[in-house]
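Bumping with the actual sequence this time:
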Amino acid sequence: MASPCLIAFLVFLCAIVSCCSDNPIDSCWRGDSNWGQNRMKLADCAVGFGSSTMGGKGGDFYTVTSADDNPVNPTPGTLRYGATREKTLWIIFSQNMNIKLKMPLYVAGHKTIDGRGADVHLGNGGPCLFMRKVSHVILHGLHIHGCNTSVLGDVLVSESIGVVPVHAQDGDAITMRNVTNAWIDHNSLSDCSDGLIDVTLGSTGITISNNHFFNHHKVMLLGHDDTYDDDKSMKVTVAFNQFGPNAGQRMPRARYGLVHVANNNYDPWNIYAIGGSSNPTILSEGNSFTAPNENYKKEVTKRIGCESTSACANWVWRSTRDAFSNGAYFVSSGKIEETNIYNSNEAFKVENGNAAPQLTKNAGVVA
């Protein structure tokens, strides 16, 4: 039988290993000191439901050299010109940039917008990023803040679709509608007119990872509305993100679909952390939740549209190996039928919730 001292040492060692565990996405590319010469390796590093996203891998590099914006007839060297091309492109930036778009920027499929190596800011009082009926998009290393509503106007959506009138947008940082295979990684998002990320209208195969969400009330919406049941096929991974400071609610808020929320770190929220309606499956695993000081805000979860607790009793909301501080608690419900939600290419190791602050310490844009 092991001695008490040996057991105590092993427990201590396990705690150290857990707290110092590597973030699997960052370990994939940041350990390479020559990543700048091998940028497209990043596309091999996604985990979760968006792990098949290739973005612009295998295509040409396109360098943004100008912060100018023409929504109808963009000039070569601008972000809009590269983002709307039909060809596969890996978009990088020649220098630090502050880009204020005049209309929403429609990002075509098979694109990576890679801000690494430059200090790139989008928003600044203008509208921001929009994806519709596209696949294979990676957004990495961008500061997106101050996104504002847009007006009805003409916009070049893509080379093939051309210029079309588009409705006014709400002022989200990133909007995805009917998008498949998208990966949103290592961005810093804050202070927009509406949400920071919307994933709606049948979008699926999405990973949202290593981002820093702060100074914003309604953070992340997954699912269009309670009548749009096509979102039942939605699958989203939310992993290794830092929520807060000053993040109010919707981290995320889901309608329908399957959402895996793993190894995120939550600062005190204003309303709730994780919520939903229309019977989404929400699997919370290895997160760290620190509740606000107010006693009535301690609950992590919020079920919306339930007349009584029993009305939502069969919703599958489960907490596994989460860590709770300052009185935070997760109200579980339902019974999960299938524990293996990922295939072998999507699966990743999820640490205990006590490790989440370490795993998310580099969330947001990496300097």
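The tokens above came from a reply further down the thread. The helical segments are 4-19, 24-29, 79-83, 356-359.
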